[in-house]
Predict the 3D structure of the following.
Amino acid sequence: MEGFVALYIFMLAAFTGYEIISKVPVILHTPLMSGSNFVHGIVLVGAMVAVGHAESRIEMIIGFFAVLLAAGNAAGGYVVTERMLEMFKSDKKPAKKGGH
């Protein structure tokens, strides 16, 4: 019965996450990405803890891929956030004082 409860919770979380993210206005995507990067870091730590407690070979393999995907997701999120923030920077250089 535990497996069905876990699957049910996963399905509810996936549906709720999709519904919430699809309703976010475009202007809030940059702050949302920043917040989600924090969550990805927590997922990475959780995946490393899971690998540390793995007992069988299949658990270690799944845990390794979880760590790999979580690390890639966290790093990619920071790259995307940096690119998004670059779009808001001004290209104008400040004028020099003194008129030279």
